[in-house]
Amino acid sequence: MRIGNISLAHGLTLAPMEEHTSLPFRLICKQQGASLVCSERIDAKDVAERDKRAIKLLSTTSAERPAVGQISGNDAVQIGEAARVIEELGFSMVDLNFECPIRRLVGRGEGGALMGQPQRIAELVAAAQQAVSIPVTVKLRTGPKAGADTAVETAQRVEQAGGAAIVLHARSVEQAYLGGPDWQHVTRVKEAVSIPVLGSGGVRTPQDAISFLESSGADGVAIGRGCLGNPWIFQQARTLLFGSREIVEPSPAERGKVLLALVEHEFEFYSAHLAQKRLARTACYFAKFLPDFAEFKKEIHAIKNLAQFRTLVREWFRPVAR
Ligand SMILES: Cc1cc2nc3c(=O)[nH]c(=O)nc-3n(C[C@H](O)[C@H](O)[C@H](O)COP(=O)(O)O)c2cc1C
């Protein structure tokens, strides 16, 4: 698949997830076979103003490329400036988020609020496209709510405005993250445009990713919650995609090793205070497979620092290969 001038080896990509798709997590997904990774959504206003926190969250390195930086907003000047910053930082593409259902954003007329205004989305895509030389992509929902499907019209306008690809989260904005995605919406959008279309929603296993690609006809899939604590889903789905039926599950030692690498990188990347706050949630995603997960959960909440965490991982994910 090609998005603008960027070639991807396959269509198995990492979906953007606020508070999850940090640079350390993106690098792990990349190592595990994701062909494209995406930053979490950042307000275009903050990026345009080069706010310190926003720029930190948009840290990127050559090892993760091709990588996408995602912004949201509803001001063409801010979107253009923020897209320029994303390009300057070294991202390979800029993605405009028109899908976020959180009230704070929708209340400001941004994110998912724009799924009711296809023409406005096209104007914002054009503003970004004129500001940068990297491809501009969009993340859409099926529409504002069930029965109000605007994705096909929006996708066509995005293509006319110069958008390079579309990622469709196959739920409505009103649905937020609940209820089944309807992959038929992805097929409809794919049939309506000639730029690449990726779908997102409901992929929890490598088999789901393959079923999604086969049944929707999409060029790719953006895997969301299915990769939290399970970055191996990318290489497993890739194995299936390239014809093998055998999937290798990571050993407990491998899970522990990757979890430890992720947490250690987060301690370097964020302040120790913030990394510590994120630690229990991150560890629980990786520990879900443990037979005594309930006990692990109690112990992880008592962990006070990285040294204690290392010991805990060695005990629980034995034999840890370090
Ligand atoms: C915790 C969380 C945070 C998310 N943050 C973003 C985001 O920052 N930008 C975005 O475009 N989508 C975001 N999404 C949506 C995902 O990119 C993806 O499309 C969605 O999770 C797909 O559904 P699934 O989790 O059922 O696979 C988020 C989803 C979750 C669960």
TrEMBL record:
Keyword tRNA processing on entry: yes
Task: Note the CDD domains from the entry.
Answer: DUS_like_FMN (cd02801)
Q: Which residues form a coiled coil?
A: none
- Natural source organism: Planctopirus ephydatiae
Q: Which GO terms describe its molecular function?
A: flavin adenine dinucleotide binding; RNA binding; tRNA dihydrouridine synthase activity
Q: What is the lineage of its organism?
A: Bacteria, Pseudomonadati, Planctomycetota, Planctomycetia, Planctomycetales
As recorded in Swiss-Prot or TrEMBL, the protein's gene is named dusC_1
Q: Which Gene3D superfamilies match?
A: Aldolase class I (3.20.20.70)
Q: Which protein is depicted? A: tRNA-dihydrouridine synthase
Alphabetically ordered keywords of this record: Flavoprotein, FMN, Nucleotide-binding, Oxidoreductase, tRNA processing
- Provide the cofactor list for this protein: FMN
The EC number on file is 1.3.1.-
Q: Where does the DUS-like FMN-binding domain lie?
A: 13-309
Q: Which family does it belong to?
A: Belongs to the dus family.
Q: Which sites bind FMN?
A: Q70, K139, H169, G224, R225
